[in-house]
Amino acid sequence: MLPFIAALAMKPSITPLIEQYQADLGSLERFYKVEISEERNNRFRGFYWDNVKVLIRQDFDALDQGEKVDYLLFKNHLERSIAQLDAFEKQIEETKPFLPFANDLIKLGQDQRRSNPIKPQLAAATLARIETDLPKLKQALEAKKNNDKFAAFRSARFNDQLLRNLAEWYRFYNTYDPQFGWWVTEPYNRTSKALQEFSTFLKERICGLKPGDNSPIVGDPIGRQALLNELKYEMIPYTPEELIDIANKQYTWCETEMKKAAKEMGYDDWHQALEKVKQDYVQPGDQPQMIRDLAEEAIKYVEDNDLVTVPQLAKETWRMTMMPREQQKVSPFFLGGEQIMVSFPTAEMEHQEKLMSLRANNIHFARATVHHELIPGHHLQQFYENRFNPQRQLFYTPFWAEGNALYYEFLFWDMGFPKTPQNKVGMLFWRMHRCARIIFSLSFHLKKMTAEECVNMLVEKVGHERASAEGEVRRSFGGGYSPLYQISYMIGALQLWSLRHELVDSGKMKQKEFHDQVFQQNSIPIEMTRALLTDQPLKPDFKSSWRFAQ
């Protein structure tokens, strides 16, 4: 146990424990940079368990409600971290046939960070041996039938990490140690190039990916039990199958409303109305002004209706940037926060690619998206997160962040924010999209849908441009998002909508008070937000049980 942690354990507050944990975690993450290092994972496992031991010695009953919630959140975080480490170690084991040289490269970096004496001749020999062995490894992998493509895809990512670690090692010694450069420069250059080629080999020859824009989508389905584990830690007491049923019901509502909006536009088929809406876009160069106008419209709407407190500094400090072409392949729509990243055609795009991007980022889709990214969405969320209960940022969950932003889309819809049937189609497109995300992402991880089937679903059931659908699916399964991220929008919004009904519709809280309180509790599992706002009795062995979907 760390002595400082032991001292803090005597304090009747959880906040100092969380604050020191965050500082210690940062120190460990900066030192142990290579994820697949066995030493790193052993160190982190011990670190997590040290904190569990300190936490469970706290007098839970002596804590106030906020500290009790922090206790439960910290306990949940540590349990999840240990479970994720267990799962990660299994993944590492699966990559060992693809990366037999990994430990040699890891050791070089570890010795450098510990300032152990360097032996340039031995280091050069290690690198030369790796370069010599790589062609044989490639040959053996190509000869083997039924290579695990998912493990190979992870291995390519880990290999890139090893390359970065090796480059840092080389930069540290080169030119400072005269013998180092003499022995190591030539084998380093050759081995670096060979390792870069090996990453390409894994992606293209083993995984079947193609260079360029038409590469297949490779994902890594985690299976039903892993989904249940993730749902447990997110405090969602539903099975994947129940959540898919909820999504299908929500989709049916959306489709009914879409048909009504289409009729208002003079169409019997809502797909035709959607196509008409997609043609309503601004000309190149005009998108930034449109985004600014939509942002200001949303802020005015929030303030005119007294929905939530919007500090002047939050209104003043948001900014905008344009998204480059490469990023639009995985993020075909806006991304947001303090800075909104605007997706729109760039000059170097091919003609058809430009047209698809124009259609996908039309005026009415944007009107339903800008407030999701800025105010009252992600920018306002992050503004509050940095100022209220900041210790809870450790427990960030997309069910609060994405769910809260979509909740306001629900609220705006009910309050009559869409002025025209075209506006309604724009809002409903995104709502259908969030339903589809639940269905395709859970079905993929349940191994019931392929990535290509997910793309087809978005095109056929939601009306996406194919390039946008591919970008959405590629982003969902590319490893940058948790397996539950895509379901968090709709499920989190339904949680907040249910909580609103419980507290606001019943008259127990005023609407603005409710919204301010949700923001001020920070980005935590919404069942814990509910526990805070209702002063729910809590025990240290708390288990999630809130059935919020009616």
Compact description:
This protein is mostly helical and about 550 residues long.
Features:
550 residues, mainly alpha, 3 domains, two-stranded parallel ribbon, 25 helices, globular
Walkthrough of the structure:
With 550 residues, this protein is mostly helical. Helix content is 67%, strand content 1%. It has 25 helices and two strands. Helix 20 (421-445) packs across helix 23 (485-505). The longest helix has 31 residues, at 65-95.
**Count of beta strands:** 2
Count of distinct structural domains: 3
**What is Rg?**
26 Å
Helix content: 55-70%
Task: Set down the secondary structure blueprint.
Elements: H1 3-8, H2 15-31, H3 38-56, H4 65-95, H5 102-113, H6 120-143, H7 149-173, H8 178-206, H9 224-233, H10 240-264, H11 270-278, H12 287-304, H13 312-317, E1 319-322, H14 325-328, E2 339-342, H15 351-360, H16 363-367, H17 370-373, H18 378-385, H19 398-415, H20 421-445, H21 451-462, H22 466-477, H23 485-505, H24 511-520, H25 526-534
Parallel strand pairs: 1-2
Helix pairs in contact: 2-3, 3-4, 4-7, 5-7, 6-8, 7-8, 10-11, 10-20, 19-23, 20-21, 20-23, 21-22, 23-25
